[in-house]
Amino acid sequence: MQPTYNKKQAILSLIPLLTFVSLFLGVGLYMHLQGVAYAFYQLPAPVAILPAIVLAFWFNKTSINESVETFIKGAGHSNIITMCLIYLLAGAFSAVAGATGGVDAVVNAGLSLIPPSLLLPGLFLIAAVVSTAMGTSMGTIGAIGPIAYAITLKTGIDPALMAGTVVSGAMFGDNLSIISDTTIAATRTQGCEMKDKFRENLKIALPAAALTVLLLLFLTPEPEIVETKPFDWLLVLPYAFILVLAVMGFNVFVVLFSGIIFAALVGFTGSYEVSGFVKDVYKGFSDMQEIFLLSMFIGGLSEFIRRNGGLDFLAKLVQKITAVVAKWHRKVADQLGIAFLVLTSNLCIANNTVSIIVAGPVAKKLADDGDISAKRSASLLDIFACVMQGSLPYGAQALLLGATFKISPWEVSASSFYCFILAFTAIAVICLQRNKA
Question: Where are the transmembrane segments (predicted)?
Fold first, then answer.
């Protein structure tokens, strides 16, 4: 079948997106070669995308007023606005729950329950629980990393192995959490409910986590006793509260708003004050400013690409790449195409949320064409973005833990066993459940 779009115009519509990726990647590589810490995070993504937006206006074959209307329509799409509002509420919950001492309570509660002979599997599970509760791998690594490093010094466990264990657990929750920005981006771009994506994701993530636990159990050295700090079980409840509500199928806005109020009420039983609550809510909003702006800008840019046939062109290009697999099974080929899209995007951008936002529209097109459910395409987007992010030596996770443990980020990435196991598990599920996507 011949394409229903102008091929030249479709290719031109993709140049702005490639410009954004190239600029973001190029500046990151340059900074890295200059020895700058967190090189790929020195150029804010909302700034890097501005030249791309200018190019999109230039290549669009309409008047400036019509181009502005096109951009605003994309930036103001209901999915984009919903996603941005969820970002704000998720940021507020994370800030309030963290300010009341919830993160420290979850970490110490987990450490108090770990038998010494299960140190590595236990730390993996703690990181998994904390990241699922917090919705952020970086926040989890920031909270658990120093504790894990202290344990390494005391027990003599290989620092790279310990750091890789923390990354593994952090990426588990980053992938699954209903307040993670990757989950928000994946579900909104694919048009599915969070609870459905969570359940679909769980079918792949749990077997991968179980295999990781078994591997870490084998790698754990002789038992050592680890001291824990006192904690209040009450501070753990807000995280459990929102997880239960989400799994029960409550509206995500209700879940997050209720979680914010519940976390504040728990804090008020201690020394937490109303003035602090107000400031923390705003701080949570501010923490989401970058991804908020980028989501709107990407939405506007994507509308230019969609209108000019770029999405159709990319979808057909990916289908050509996976044509060999398609001869065996079309659905498997399209699912692998979605995985390839987000892996490539994340490799260039080194940010799993941004890579999902960039790859999302094309993934949606592939899913629709291949009759793949929205929950499966959202799950695959999130899984493979987190696989790549947790495996990147120049990703923020590896860089932070490399600095914390005083080792090379390459060593951290090489020990992130869960990410590798998750990739193989996801591919196995795609092939074995080829008729159930």
Answer: 12-33, 39-59, 80-103, 123-152, 204-220, 240-268, 336-359, 412-432
